[in-house]
Amino acid sequence: MEMHPLPFTPKTLALAIAAGLLVSQSVTKAHADSPPENEWICSPDAQGGWSCGLAPKKKSAIKRSPLPAEVVTVNNIAPGMQKDTAKKVSAKTRTAPPATETVAVSPAQTALRKTLDWVPASQLTPAQRAGQQFYSCGAYIEPERPGKDFKGNPDTQPIHIDADDVKYDQESIARLNGNVTLRQANRLFEGDNLTLNKLENTATFRGNTRVREPGLLVLGQYGSANLNTGEATVDDAAYVVHASNVRGQAKRVVRNGDATIELTDATYTSCPPSNNGWLLSGQKVRLNPNTGFGSATNATVKVHGIPVLYTPYIYFPIDDRRQSGFLYPTIGSSSNNGFDASIPYYFNLAPNYDATLTPRIMSKRGAHLEGQARYLTAQNKGEIGAAALAGKDALKKENRYYDQQRWLISWNHTTTLTPRWTMGIDYANASDKQYIDDFGTQLNLSSSGPLNQRVGTKYLGGDADHDWQLKLDAHKFKNMSETSDDPYDKLPQIELKGTWFTAAEINVNYLVDYTRFSRSDNWHYVNEVPDPDFNPGDDVKKSLYDQGYGIERAEGDRAYFESGASFPFTASYGFITPAVKVQHVQYSLTNLNKQEVIDDLKHYGFKEDDYTKTPSTTVPTFSLDSGLYFDRQITFEETAYTHTFEPRVKYLYAPSVEGQAMNPVFDTALMDFTYSSLWRDSRFTGYDRLGDANQLSIGFSSSLLREKDGFERLRFALGQTLYFKDRDVYIDPRTGEKNKIHWDINEQEQYARLKDEMEEPTSPLVSELVYTINRASSVQQDLAWNTNSNQLDNYGIYYRYHPQSRKVFNIGYRFRSQADRYVKDEFDNNVIDSAGHYETASNDLSLSDVSVAWPINNQWSALGRWQYDFTNKRNFEVMSGIEYNSCCYQLRVLWRSWIEPDDNIDHPTKKSGVFLQFVLRGLGGLSSGSVSNYLSGIQGYEQDEK
Fold first, then answer.
1. N- to C-terminal Cα distance for the chain?
2. 20 to 30 A Cα–Cα from 865, which one of 281, 571, 674, 893?
3. Domain match, 751 and 872 both
4. Predicted pLDDT at 758
5. What is the DSSP letter of 141?
6. Is 724 in the same domain as 666?
7. pLDDT-based confidence at 495, cuts 50/70/90?
8. Cα dihedral: 864, 870, 871, 877 (round 10)
9. What pLDDT shows up at residue 827?
């Protein structure tokens, strides 16, 4: 399990391996005291030291990549030169400067840094290019060399030293000059000069130094090593980490005896050579390969040379291991929160435990703290989180929670008791319904739906002949909407369901569900009014709630039973499945006022004798489902396809059972009618309405499948239901409301539409179409046409052109016929016209949606979305922006104007803003506003922020 996403790519700034691995260890006890015809070959001995000896010198197999010419041209002696010539040139070699000497950066050194294995994009092979992002300017490609692919422990491998000239004296000083190479397995050191002091057991090197390990390259001009302590120093170093595509420089690299690395004036960037689009620099950087973390003091992030972020201390990983420390800070600004800055601290408590604590400052609201802890064991896993303002909310404008404590908690837990038995907890709570909208959270919670407060267990039982499961839940909901009703809590819900496969090929299904429904006293949303506790200038509204009215006040127990059997006959050419089942629902209701219920249900012709607290309904159902399979091979546009045609017919019968008006509506709704509705046994979700039916559904589907790979070019489906009897069971939209002044929909028209639908002899003619023009573009359409009134009930069409991740164009239109709505005034009350009637307006959904993300060139892209409400003649959302991509950073600027979905349609509050997102590739991002959320509306657009 991946416990935590960390801000640095593994092995970031891993020049730790540089001098230490290849200098301090590789040449330990190795010194040259032989003529140049021989070479030293060393290997580890049993005591942990080195066993070295002379062997005839072989021609070097290492092909060095070309290096810029040195300013001091006294090295690089070719192997074929005469010995005396080599000695003369060697004698001109300058003595290596002491460690404290400042080495000037020459033009040759500058050129040397441009040879960090960088290959421009134009020179990459097709295979190398395939692994790069679209914005890539190139890649660091490690060249082939001996030992590169070695996979064992290099510490146990012999050391090979090679040079053009070796000179030694009686003071035990050995000087290796010209094309010096030192290799141990996959480690490689190259340079112009190497000096070994046997008495002091030290080594110094100078000139075009190159140090390699797999995935790592370090270049330097001067260095030294103490072979007794393992301490090594490299001055004026440049480095690259190939896999992470990052590079940097350091004035000095010190490898301590404990293998920790200290860097002075170090830099880090993912930008290509000669491009410092962004650069992280630290005065002192410390890397610890033993623990896998690094730290930097006085760290500054610059963008094109302009400082954008400073932190006195930063802590980051250098490999895959998780480590405690500060993660990257985030900084932003918004109208609600003002200046907004946070910096998370990550606690790596154990391999299977961790936590994150995020202090945050908002100039308009105050200090904020959020914490998250995760755990993982053999039987348990989970996450605990909490967040709160340190004091009271300081924002006064348009904030109903001004001067209040605000907080959020959550706990998600799963326990595996046995391979078949699990239990879980999913609990979240907040101080108010606006918390997540105002502050956001990293706790994986949504503000668009209610917060879950559930504890439950599930057992999976049975064998090959009998499959069953038992589930027990206690489920509450925290409504996070200020303008909607609270849902029912389920305390508890017990469900047992299963299927028995008999020897006679009869499948027996059963389901038992017991649920107790309840909710708080004030659950029913009425409207919003100005809050009298605030100054009118603060524009603060208050939501009003009441206890509901009539049958909708009901609480209590519901038991549902269902049992049935099916006998499927299947063959390669079709199927036929007869099935029978019996459904029964039983209630025990509380919290009802008898007279209110009678008044509320009078639309049904409800009488006083019909009132009961224990209503029940039993409905038997019979169905006969059948279908055929036809296919043929055709050729279209010189491509072979399989054309399928699958007609299907289903008969469904369920008698009408009266008295369901007394059944409350706990969790049930009428489903939209689509092609898949033709084959369902019920037109309702949930168990509060057991629908009647005497109908025959007829339809077909047809597909065009490409033979070579099964690619579906076209799919079309069409069908309709014939009703042999009017439907009697429905959910009356007129119930549950006492004061019409706050009604949203014209309930009389809504009811009239429902009654007409139930009395029509046929359902709407429904169809689905998916046409994939090619891999880049497709058309989808769904339609419901009322053949009885010759009008459109529901229609949607969408076209998408998506040839690549950056290039997408969507255009769509959705229409749904709906009952008229009531016109509202600015206080959300119904408007009364001159005749004393409530004024109405069309409420049909007629919405277009156009979105685009289109590259102008390899760096610039245009972004946009436009949603237009034809019914109310207004822009629902307009968004336009630009995106800039370079090799090392990404910039997005968006302008957005929108209306909240739950705003008063007649008096909406239009909002607009400019939002900025800036992403440093390989480091992190600084952003304001929910840019990523806004861009998610461009379907198919991939937000590449790596």
1. 22
2. 674
3. no
4. 93
5. -
6. yes
7. very high
8. 10
9. 75
